[in-house]
């Protein structure tokens, strides 16, 4: 038995059709299903965290709706930017071909954040606290969405003979049929997303004392992970040999540090609920001092 045959035997076989079926003529895919589940669960978590920190549920839901729409637009535009050669002679395809796929995760994240921040700033809502609520919801949605990638196998990766490598055997797979590969998107990144989620909820949310810094932590953790995983992906656009996601990841890490510095100096509006959770309720002495009238 040669090494390639042994690798196939030791690998994890995925033999699932990427498409679930059709409803009213529309193709329902596992990727679309888990993307929808990820959006619902991510938005629900963010709205809950925002409510805990004093942002009413209706405000959180309104922000979430604007962010989701902005994320879809951003994801499509970023994909078009990366694959401009496919659209430069057919601009209408930017809109008409969206049902055939073609979105980019980073574009969705950037578009969603920008849309939510601009909308929140227009209404003068507490932006930094809203971002802190958005971070865990975003990484939860990303992790659940990656389950669809696990089934599809669409993000091509380097070959591997490790026992946890994936082999896609269904004839409709979007991956390379019958080749043992690293499970980058549907394995490593999926698990990494949930590790980041745990760090944000159990560590960052507990110990970080500056509003907005939890979101900056999310930006850094995800970007560092995505930068590293790009080394095992073989389907990414490059600029002078550097994968575009690595360039974007490096830029986002830099922006995260800049944003952290700006927020540290100008934290913006802070709610009483956030102060009570993060800084603790005022002590009895402080309460008495505030209630005691100043001497004439």
Task: Name its key features.
296 residues, mainly alpha, 3-stranded mixed beta sheet, two-stranded antiparallel ribbon, 11 helices, 7% strand
Task: Summarize this structure briefly.
The chain is mainly alpha-helical and 296 residues long.
Describe it for me?
With 296 residues, the protein is mainly alpha-helical. The protein has one domain (21-279). Helix content is 62%, strand content 7%. The chain has 11 helices and 7 strands. The strands form 3 sheets. A 3-stranded mixed beta sheet has the order 1-4-5. It has a two-stranded antiparallel sheet with strand order 2-3. Helix 3 packs across helix 5. The longest helix is centred in the first third of the chain and has 26 residues, at 57-82. It is globular. 40% of the residues are buried. The model has no long low-confidence stretch (mean pLDDT 87).
Write the layout of secondary structure elements.
Elements: H1 3-10, E1 12-14, E2 19-23, E3 26-29, H2 30-52, H3 57-82, H4 93-96, H5 105-122, H6 127-152, E4 166-168, E5 180-181, H7 184-207, H8 213-229, E6 238-239, E7 242-243, H9 244-265, H10 272-278, H11 284-291
Parallel strand pairs: 1-4
Antiparallel strand pairs: 2-3, 4-5, 6-7
Helix pairs in contact: 2-3, 2-6, 3-5, 5-6, 6-7, 6-8, 7-8, 8-9
How large, in whole angstroms, is the Cα Rg?
22 Å
- How many distinct helices? 11
Q: Main beta sheet, described?
A: 3 strands, mixed
Helix vs. strand class: mainly alpha
What fraction of residues sit in β-strands? Answer: 5-15%
What order do the helices and strands follow?
Answer: HEEEHHHHHEEHHEEHHH
Mean pLDDT: 87
